[in-house]
Structure formats: C-alpha cells, structure tokens
Amino acid sequence: MNARIKHEFSAKIWLHSGQGGWHFISLPKEIAKEIRDNLKSEEQGWGRLKATAKIENSQWETAIWFDTKHKTYLLPLKAEIRKKEKLETNKEIKITVWV
Q1: Strands 58-67 and 92-98
Q2: What would the DSSP string read from start to end of 1-47?
Q3: What's the gap between Cα 22 and its chain centre?
Q4: In three state form, how does the secondary structure of 50-97 look?
Q5: Quick check: 2 pLDDT over 70?
C-alpha cells in the first residue's frame, strides 16, 4: 500500500435528498483532482477509495466515493460522528482526510 497523503480543508455538511438521508462532505475539487490523478487506479467499485477521516476529536476508518455528477469525492458522515461532534447540515467544519 502506498503512503497515505494528508489533506486538510474546510467544507459544509450537506444532506442527500434521496432515501436514507445521508449526510456528506464534498472534497474541494482541486483536492479531488489531485487524488483522482494519482489514485484512480486504486479505486474500487463506484469510485471508492479507502480513507481515514478526522473531525474535531473523532477519527475513523471510512471511504470516499467519486461522484461523477459533482466531479469530486464525497465523504459520508456517520450519525455517530455527527452526534458526538454536534455536526449539523450546512455547518462549515474543518476536516482532515488521509487517502
């Protein structure tokens, strides 16, 4: 496995309008482009890449998914993390992602 690359950024939490009400963070497009240019060959089904995410005091193993419609990766936010860190839709947060 390659060395993991750390990306730090701020983004707003948004709610998917489909079934299930998933909350996501969209990675900034310039970061997504860098990741895709270097790691596209490692993507699994549906543009999935394993990642580690950190918000405030919570760090967890997850995955980011490439969204062809938005041309960026999406990071799903588990209810457990949202509750623990008091995260709400449209709140801008600082996040670190290692891919």
Answers
A1: unpaired
A2: -PPP-EEEEEEEEEE-SSTT--EEEEPPHHHHHHHHHHHGGG-BGGG
A3: 12
A4: EEEEEECCEEEEEEEEEECCCCEEEEEECHHHHHHCCCCCCCEEEEEE
A5: no
Q: Give me the residue label for tokens 């290692």.
A: 98
Percentage of residues of the chain with pLDDT beyond 70 = 97
Determine the Cα–Cα distance for residues 33 and 81; give it in Å rounded to an integer.
26
Q: Is 99 helix (H, G, I), strand (E, B) or coil?
A: coil
Domains of the chain: 6-98 (2.40.30.100)
Mean pLDDT over all residues of the chain?
A: 93
Using the predicted structure, report yes or no on whether residue 98 has a pLDDT greater than 80: yes
pTM: 0.90
